[in-house]
Specification:
114 residues, rod-shaped, mainly alpha, 0% strand, c-terminal domain of poly(a) binding protein
Amino acid sequence: MPRSVNVVAAKARRKKIMKETKGQFGRRKNVWTVAKNAYEKGQQYAYRDRRTKKRNFRALWIQRINAGARLHGMSYSVFMGKLHAKDIEISRKVLADLAMNNPEAFKAIVDAVK
């Protein structure tokens, strides 16, 4: 009896990955083995960088809060310490946005913790 292989499923699987690598440079877009490796590596980078993005944004928020706090004669660590001591719970994301786009509101928060 001849060997039965499910070509339909295999072709669909390859087609899906080839569609994902469409637009890449060189053999990454049209050679199956190279495209598969490129796709898998891309998925690894995507998984890793979803976490890295959170770190990068937190660092950016801290820099913006620090810059805003220093305009009012206070360092970031002192400002955050006094915020926690006064039980004012505002996220770093919101504080950074206030420091950048609404300096009056940020100044009010700084005055509240002084």
